[in-house]
Design goal:
Elements: H1 3-31
Amino acid sequence: MQRSQWISVLTGFVAVILGVGYLILVQILDWRGGEMLPAPVDLSFLF
C-alpha cells in the first residue's frame, strides 16, 4: 500500500472511533435520566 492509502485508512479508522465514542457518550447521558427540558427563552436582554 502506498502512503496515501495508509493515511486514508487511518483517517477512516479515527473517524469511526470518534463516531462510536460520540454515540456511547450520548447513550450514557440519555441513560442518566431526567426530564429533557428546552432551554429557557429570556428575551429581556433585548429591551
